[in-house]
Amino acid sequence: MQKDFHYYATYCASLLAGYSHEESLSICYSAQFVDCCTRTLLSSLKAPLSAATTQLQLELANARTDPVGLQDITRIWASFHFLPGDLYAPVKKASRHYQNKYRLICNPNGTLLSDTVELAKGSSLQAAGIAMHVLADTWAHRYFAGTPSLVINNTNFYFYELFPEENTFREQPVVFSHSPGTPDDVEKSHYNGSIFQSSENSIMNLGHGRAGHLPDYSFIRYKYLPAWGDYEAVVKDNPSDYYHAFCQMVYALKYLRGLVPTFEAYRYDFDSVAPWEAQIRTILGKRQSDACADWKALGETISGQEIGDFDLVRYQQEYRESPERDKNNTFLGRFFLAALAQKSMVTNKIFRSGNLLAGFSVDYAEKGFRGIRDFIRLVEAQKGEQHDD
Amino acid sequence: MTNMQRIKKVLAAILMILCSCIVIRYPEEGFYLVAVIFCVSLLLYGIRTLLYYLTMARHMVGGKSILYFGIIVFDLGIFILTTVNDPKFFIVIYLFVFYGFSGIMAVLQAFETKRFDSPSWKWILIEGIANTAVAILAVIAGLFLRSSVDISYLYAACLFYSAFIQLSTAFRKTAIIFIQ
User: Which residue from A62, A151, A206 is facing B57, i.e. has the nearest CB?
Assistant: First the structure.
């Protein structure tokens, strides 16, 4: 998903869940910031590098693909963009290594999604924003894994875009080019994808790189053979998936506000969204690579207030100028704590499933602090919260 | 290209220079040693590819291509191992296949790179032409050079050339596409 959904659509969902204009802006800013919080940005802010929620192309190009480097990549992409659907998915007659990769395939409505939303409960608006990013991406990025893997993430020539025609769909083959920097031409169905690399752990085989930007476009429907699918074609209906994502966000945000007692998978707040369903479905189905303007207009109609554009540097000065002891209370400080908490939780769940692809996780309550020092900040913040309680 | 890949390329270049020095110093015995190292490397690579197929790629759509590739590499390793006792034949075959294939692939890649307006296409084209020239030279030398020692020297020169290419590639600026 892109800024149109993570920023503007998340703003709309927050409003429909009952948050105020200002609260909704904080939530949607945090949701979009997940796509911007790189190690390069964090080092410029002198912030904990482990709070990175994404990686720049250049960072990926220089990323190591040895086991430790792969664990670092997996922690970022599986925690924030490709949340695994089932960490205990059965795999028949497969090696442990294949099974571990297969179990990282992203899908909506998994146990980890409930864990993600529950983790944000009672926490900051920034945590809610991060949870909404993760939730929305489970719909857009389903069927791909947040770890480099040829055997999971590869696609082949069997790739068709589906165009609705009366009661059926017309199939048109999708041919991906590999032209760096060239934008997709959605009108002519010309798309970019990453180059085929036969190496299992090549960065080219991370996430949906082989399928290009297609999972990120709300209007598109396509079918293809996922590498893991045993030659069974998968049909991806993005307009439907994105609508479910939106309604699930409203439901999850209501849970975070305390309007709903529990968060359960497979529940969507269709009722709250119903008055706006026609407009939302029109935006989702409109053939365009960037729906920001449409979502912004809808958000301003719902709230009656102007929505400022996403400004990457908006909160950076506050963080830089804040004294060390107060940094956790700044907007970005709260975002970093929430990101560390999310990464820590997902890594722990993957580790506990017997899968080491995201690295080791040490239970602080049992063994005290061990491991990456950045997470001391999270431990101290949680100790502070307990002390305040 | 990652730092680790660059380090691997530098190490490969150093190994090639060492091998070529050994071949120049001891044309007969040195060559035999290098040929055995090369064959064992191919065999190990073939086995590794076959293991990758058995443990991972057999579950993948289109994974059979990995199996075929592993079999071909493994088979090539065995074939070359049977020819190391005839240095002249081995060197000519090796130089022709290796440099010829690399050359053609580089020329094709250069044309594709040019299509995307990347400035690096000229460098890739030069590399491709040079590799193809080495392959042709190897066949001509095989027909006219009667001494195995002379052919060993040609092989050593090619190894030096490959080491140079590896080093220049290791320090070349690279770009990748990645779709978020």
Answer: A151
Inform me whether the C-beta atom of residue A151 falls under 8 Å from chain B C-beta atoms.
yes
State mean pLDDT over A15-39.
96
Which residue on chain B is closest to A216 by alpha carbon? B180
Q: Is the same domain home to A274 and A355?
A: yes
ipTM: 0.82
* pLDDT the model gives residue B174: 46
Q: Measured between CB atoms, which of B52, B55, B178 is closest to A57?
A: B178
Interface test with B, best of A151, A192, A196, A206 (most B CBs within 10 A): A151
Is A381 part of any domain? Answer: no
Residue of A nearest to B3 (CA): A62
CA distance A206 to chain B (A): 8
Q: A125 and A260 in one domain?
A: yes
Give the whole-angstrom CA distance, residue A349 versus residue A332. 26
Q: Who among A156, A192, A198 is closest to B177 (CB)?
A: A192
In the numeric block, the tokens 């009722």 are attached to A271
Q: For residues A123 and A248, state if they share a domain.
A: yes
pLDDT per residue as tens digits for the range A265-290: 999 999 999 999 999 999 999 999 89
Is the Cβ pair A60, B175 closer than 8 Å? no
Residue A170 within a domain: yes
**Mean pLDDT across B92-120:** 75
Query: Within an 8 Å CB–CB cutoff, is residue A137 touching chain B?
Result: no
Rounded to two decimals, what is the model's pTM? 0.83
The shortest C-alpha distance from B46 to chain A (Å) reads 14
CA distance to A38, A181, A202, A205, B50, per residue, from B179 (Å): 15, 10, 14, 10, 30
Domain boundary among A219, A238, A257: A238
Cα separation, B84 vs B86, whole angstroms: 5
| A15 shares its domain with A140 | yes
Domain C-terminal end among A238, A273, A294 = A238
The helices-and-strands tally (H runs, E runs) of chain B is 6, 0
Does the structure show a pLDDT above 90 at A314? yes
Q: Which domain holds residue A222?
A: 151-238
Domain spans, chain B: 3-170
Residue pair A284/A276 in contact by the 8 Å Cβ criterion: no
The answer, yes or no, to whether residue B134 has pLDDT greater than 90, is: no
Q: Is residue A303 part of a domain?
A: yes
Q: Are residues A190 and A72 in the same domain?
A: no
Q: What's the count of helices (H) and strands (E) in chain A, helices before strands?
A: 18, 6
Q: Is residue A366 part of a domain?
A: no
The tally of domains found in chain A comes to 2
Q: Hey, are the CB atoms on A64 and B180 less than 8 Å from each other?
A: no
> In sequence order, which residues have a C-beta less than 8 Å from that of residue B23 and are 6 or more positions away?
B30, B31, B34, B152, B153, B155, B156, B159
Among A102, A180, A230, the residue with its CB nearest the CB of B175 is: A180
Shared domain check, A137 and A12 = yes
Of residues A366 and B97, more confidence is placed in B97
